[in-house]
Amino acid sequence: MQLRYNYRVYPTPGQQQALARAFGCARVVFNDGLRARQAARDNGERYLSDGELSKRVITQAKQTPERAWLSEVSTVVLQQALADLNAAYRNFFNSLTGKRNGRTVAPPKLRSRKDNRQAIRFTKNSRFRLLDNGRLRLPKIGDVAVRWCRALPAEPRSVTIMRDAVGRYFASFVVTTTDKPLPPVDVEVGIDLGLTHFAVLSDGTKIAAPKFLRHAAGKLRRLQQDLSRKQRGSANRKKAVVKVAKAHSRVADSRRDWQHKLSTRIIRDSQAVYVEDLCVTGLARTRLAKSVYDAGWSQFVHMLEYKAARYGRTFARIDRFAPTSQRCSVCGRIDGPKPLNIRSWTCPCGAAHDRDINAARNVLAAGRAESLNACGARVRPAPVPAPCREAGIRPGAAPVPGAARRESPSFTTERASIRPVPPD
Predict the structure, then answer these.
(1) Annotation says 192 is catalytic
(2) Catalytic residue chosen out of the listed positions 276, 370, 407, 414
(3) CA distances (Å), 399 to each of 301, 304, 396, 403, 411, in order?
(4) Who has the most CB within 10 Å: 46, 105, 372, 389?
């Protein structure tokens, strides 16, 4: 499978200028290609193909005085900018036709030169190299110092140079790896994600939510207030913007590091992991939006998914509409919806449940059922005769006109009998 390995790079002042030039050229080519296709659509012309668009906005544009400076950067950087535009259009068209799952994708839009986050990509055709002294040689940029925190497992296929809002530079290598699966274990776990506890496992383990954003809210509030007092366009405002970005980057980095450690531990200790398919976008429209985004459920579930595929574990999502918080994990009875302030309840069968642990156990049971169903095994529960008291009228109830037939013993017996389910 293909993985990304990110490393911090430290370009010199001259290399930073060269990278800024490459960022700007890639942005201009992307915007020129987008304008060309929009103009063709407005004029009723046919859709510009990828090859024709590359010839117009790169090859022919370099020969004009207005775009002659495109020759100062690597051609691969410009071609990859158009590749990003073509991918954006394909995602947009596939979303309209239904070939792409998930939310509707908007059409591509122009890239802003005021965006502090920039990125360019070099492929094998650009002949970037990893030198013996640990530096990264980029065409028309130079040998960039890299902080190697770990070795690459294989030869990289491409490298993306990124600059974030704080001003840090990163190199992201795409590597194809074939990791050995972890030793099998006899443990399967279901995970119930929440806000009070970030994750509750089916074995009863509760993992508290770190709430990184909530803990940094005071400092962020002061920095935002300081930013609002600065005059627009001034140098002090730019410094204040960087301070706010640094505070947010600390929160994001802390959350990402904590989720990586937790997801790795769960995948290492469990043979199969089952989670509930939560609608984070819908939950973010409620009054709990800030807490939902602070939890970072989508990022954590994505980590579990790709690490399970990497290390030979089983990962599955269960239906988001499954009544995991309403069903008794012992007898299977659905007791109806319960408000969030009810954290524990007792089933009529006599089993006392913690709300989150019971939901995690139901997630585990549903995940096992789906996995068995995928293998062709029978997962439908056996038929159970319904008690007569549930099929008839409650004793002492007021008579209802026309209910004589429903009160007859023969009708009650008929309602109480269940025909066995024919074998699949």
Answers:
(1) yes
(2) 276
(3) 55, 58, 9, 7, 16
(4) 105
